[in-house]
């Protein structure tokens, strides 16, 4: 008897007294999927967890989103920004009036060209308060995945009504994007890893700095 056969034999022996072989029927679990996790305040929790990842976040009324985008890019030291074609016109107008150089992704920019741009500006799909995670489903206001992976700085606009409590609720909200086969990008703070000798390295697999504008 080899190791695999021995392990399987022990499992069969340990489970021989179970009459119902279907685990779903044997141990029923009462669970309603995608029910919100009770939180004192969803937006406050989202802000707290975004800041815990050392990302910047500001809360603003919709009327000031354009001004906050310009301020965010200035704070990040970004003079050029790639903007998806589906970005709201008011964002583009605010950038133009502030003298920020706008780079378009039509035709698609090469990775080298994207790397030369200071920042990227996008909208977002769904965000998760409990984990401080922003989920992109790459619709027109977010552009293709490369836009949010190559530039060093990411300014992301999150609408308050798209912030949910937890991961199951977020997945339920993204059902349409999933069924459409859209790529999903989940962002929790700026890109960083400590895989090599526990030394923190930033900007390995995405923007090094994240600036979130929470539009209420």
Q: What is the class in the CATH system?
A: Alpha Beta
Number of domains: 1
Distance between the termini: 65 Å
Largest sheet: 6 strands, parallel
Beta content: 15-25%
The overall pLDDT, averaged over residues, is 91
Q: Would you tell me which CATH topology applies?
A: Rossmann fold
Tell me the name of the CATH homologous superfamily: NagB/RpiA/CoA transferase-like
Unreliable stretches covering 5 or more consecutive residues: none
SS class: alpha/beta
Kindly describe this structure:
The chain is an alpha/beta fold and 216 residues long. Helices cover 31% and strands 21% of the residues. The chain has helices at residues 3-14, 23-26, 42-52, 65-76, 89-97, 111-116, 167-173, 175-179; strands at residues 56-60, 80-82, 101-103, 119-122, 126-128, 133-136, 153-159, 163-164, 185-187, 192-193, 201-202, 209-215. The strands form three sheets. Strands 1-12-7-4-2-3 form a six-stranded parallel β-sheet, with helices on both faces. Strands 8-5-6-9 form a four-stranded mixed β-sheet. Helix 5 (89-97) links the parallel strand 2 and strand 3 (101-103). It starts with a helix and ends with a strand.
Q: Would you spell out the secondary-structure blueprint of this structure?
A:
Layout: H1 3-14, H2 23-26, H3 42-52, E1 56-60, H4 65-76, E2 80-82, H5 89-97, E3 101-103, H6 111-116, E4 119-122, E5 126-128, E6 133-136, E7 153-159, E8 163-164, H7 167-173, H8 175-179, E9 185-187, E10 192-193, E11 201-202, E12 209-215
Parallel strand pairs: 1-12, 2-3, 2-4, 4-7, 5-8, 7-12
Antiparallel strand pairs: 5-6, 6-9, 10-11
